[in-house]
């Protein structure tokens, strides 16, 4: 039984627009994931890298655009009385900017300040506790393998939003569902409803 859905933010609810190449140029090195780089750096370099990241995140949040179908999809979730949460490696400040700009409301939010970031399962365990929903009844939705790894490790079902222009390497991390547009979450919810109805029917036999 599906009781709650957890969404990634950048690239899932909003169109991806953070200029990571520019961040790396300012840092002065090819660092890959900025948060991971910051964690393994000296305290001084960590502070410098995070300051640069947060500056770009703030700009990205202020210029953010919702993916097509987000509002329709969130309204559908509300009608179904499913709890919804936001899980991001972004800062809480950038999350608040995005939510305020697009007039979105999430009762449950976990950002990088709250716990170990994705792909660790910790953020979902924290949300599971706050939402009072076992991970068996949660769905993790994201556009990158870290979202799927996080969900799988925590025991949720997972959905990958796949962008046509993005090429994903074959990995051992396989999502339970793949969608090409965020509004297709509606079809995933309908799938769970049909499964639940089927189980109820079996119990009546």
Automatic annotation (TrEMBL):
- Reading the lineage from the top rank, the first entry is Bacteria
- InterPro entries given in the database record: HAD-like_sf, HAD-SF_hydro_IA, HAD_2, HAD_sf
User: Secretion signal: which residues?
Assistant: none
Q: Which NCBIfam families match?
A: HAD-SF-IA-v1 (TIGR01549), HAD-SF-IA-v3 (TIGR01509)
Which named protein is this?
A: Phosphoglycolate phosphatase
Please tell me the species this chain comes from: Candidatus Jettenia caeni
């Amino acid at each position: 039984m599906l009781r709650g859905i957890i969404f990634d933010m950048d690239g899932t609810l909003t169109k991806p627009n953070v200029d990571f190449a520019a961040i790396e140029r300012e840092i002065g090195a090819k660092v890959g994931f900025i948060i991971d780089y910051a964690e393994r750096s000296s305290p001084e370099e960590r502070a410098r890298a995070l300051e640069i990241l947060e500056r770009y995140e703030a700009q990205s949040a202020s210029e953010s655009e919702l993916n097509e179908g987000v509002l329709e999809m969130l309204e559908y979730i509300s009608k179904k009385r499913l709890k919804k949460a936001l899980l991001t490696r972004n800062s809480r400040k950038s999350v608040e900017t995005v939510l305020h700009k697009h007039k979105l409301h999430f009762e449950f939010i976990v950002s990088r300040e709250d716990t170990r970031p994705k792909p660790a399962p910790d953020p979902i365990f924290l949300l599971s506790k706050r939402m009072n929903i076992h991970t068996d009844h949660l769905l993790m939705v994201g556009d990158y393998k870290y979202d799927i790894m996080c969900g799988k490790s925590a025991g949720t079902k997972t959905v990958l939003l796949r962008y046509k222009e993005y090429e994903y390497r074959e990995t051992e991390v396989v999502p339970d569902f793949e969608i090409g547009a965020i509004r297709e979450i509606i079809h995933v919810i309908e799938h769970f409803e049909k499964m639940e109805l089927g189980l109820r029917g079996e119990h009546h036999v």
